[in-house]
Amino acid sequence: MVETVNVRRFGAGQQPVKPAHSSRRLVLAFEFATATHGRAVLFLILCCLILFLPGFFATPPIDRDEARFAQATRQMVESGDFVDIRFQDDVRYKKPVGIYWLQAAVVETASALGMPRAQARIWLYRVPSLIGAIGAVLLTYWTALAFVTRRGAALAALMMASCVLLGVEARLAKTDAMLLLTVTAAMGALARVYLSWQRGEDPAHPPWSAPVIFWTALAGGILLKGPLILMFVGLAIAVLAALDRSLEWFARMRPVWGLMWCLVLVLPWFVLIFLRAGETFFADSVGGDMLSKLGAQESHGAPPGLYLVLFWITFWPGAPLAGMAAPAVWRARREPGAQFLLAWLIPSWIVFEVVLTKLPHYVLPLYPAIAILTVGALERRVLSRSIWLIRGSAWWFAIPAITAVIAVAGAIKLTHQPAFPAWPILAGAMIFGLVAWWMFEDSRAERSLLNAVIAAMLLAIAVYGLVVPSLRPLFPSAEVGYLLRYANCPGPKLASAGYHEPSLVFLTHTSIVLTDGSGAADFLGQGPCRFALVEARSERNFVQRADAIGLRYNAAARIDGYNISQGRPISIAIYRSEDPQ
């Protein structure tokens, strides 16, 4: 299948289109930064660090998923058992072991280097997510090189680096940033083989690089989040096979050898966990976690169309351009490059829209395809001129403005302080967003995007770096951990009634007893140097039981805060058992 020479196609290397007024400093700087592959990679890494590091070290553990992952990893490190996955005494078999091993490797390395209290530092558990996010951005650049110019590939990667959703996931000790890395690597390798076949290339000895990357990424994705990566890859291959009425090209991926290599990487842990837990792991991960998402798991049910609505926020600042690119992308849908990217995007997106359980990060592995499609249309200057879509460029200013209002209002409500240090930076974000909106036209789309990316960087510094860490009432577990760290008795023992968030376990001790008010009173009565954390709704039972057993205790402190998992204010009293006379 040979492409015609006179038709510009996705996947057929194109000449860069110079935007109007390219002498402006911002565009000149971008041109310099992307003049070579080496510069482009360094530039993208620097942008990622600016976008992802604010708040990375200062933000306490976020309930509930991040704290659960981190605590399960901490128990692996404490116990030395790197096969079983547990949260306190309960098994945690919703996900395979991949992310726990990565987090444990970072924590063990930090401990070996002499870092004090490494197991209690949440940012160490976030390092794999940071690496995954940066790696996914670089792999978006690598994947895009098969479809667009180097300059366009850098724009697509920049679009991914600055998008809201990846900025969140890069700061959370979870699986999703690393899953994005594995999916992007697999699809990038697949794209190179598919487009080579479409161009009619038939090498006598097809290279091994693409198959090795593909099957290794597949194994990594399975160890991170089970068979989910197989859905992204499998649906894309199935759609391409149906459209081309051929699967001949996939033979170049060395499926027999590749499958064997994938099994070599994946099977050992699955065999070990089966020998340890029997069918429990597979029942919990497949039946209890994956299949339960077909219904409304954990009250996260929502109707179809939610991801499309959220896209305009989660993919900002790239979303306005993606909307303008959509008509041109659809017209080019039978061109090999666009066909591949749409096969990556549309089938899996439909599945996620149909499934009742919806969380914003589920569609993150589809965003690189959107970024590349958008840049492909931008390079050709075929963005839609529809007045309604062009008006969407106002979103570049609206998001910083809305975010600034929410950040300041939230700070005032929670801390009674207006977050003054963040104001100049938030103002700068609004100015760059306003410039991106005002200067937008088809020939200046690239410069508008670059201004919007700078707005995203300033928002990251202001919101994640300054505002969020200052919202101490949102993190009551951190306040509890700080107070108990300086308890003037050796080896304090803890119990908590009414407040059972995973972050509390991570920030205090694995052995903390999660109980009710009566149980907290009984716990205090068992000896000295014991603390009971009693949430206001459990205090009545605590006091009644304490009176009934003649318990003597001291009220050490009270912490007022907000439980973001339950969406309600809380008040936690800290009681301490009296030392015997």
Describe what this molecule looks like in 3D.
The protein is of the alpha/beta class and 581 residues long. The chain is 59% helix and 7% strand. It is built from 24 helices and 7 strands. Strands 4-3-5-7-6 form a 5-stranded mixed sheet, sandwiched between helices. It has a two-stranded antiparallel ribbon with strand order 1-2. Strand 1 and strand 2 (90-91) form a beta hairpin. Helix 4 (98-112) crosses helix 5 (122-144) and helix 9 packs parallel to helix 11. 47% of the residues are buried. Mean pLDDT is 91; it is low at 1-9 and 11-23.
Descriptive terms for the model:
581 residues; alpha/beta; 5-stranded mixed sheet; two-stranded antiparallel sheet; 24 helices; 7% strand; disordered N terminus
- Beta percentage is 5-15%
Low-confidence stretches: 1-9, 11-23
Largest sheet report: 5 strands, mixed
Strand order of the largest sheet: 4-3-5-7-6
Residue-averaged pLDDT, rounded?
91
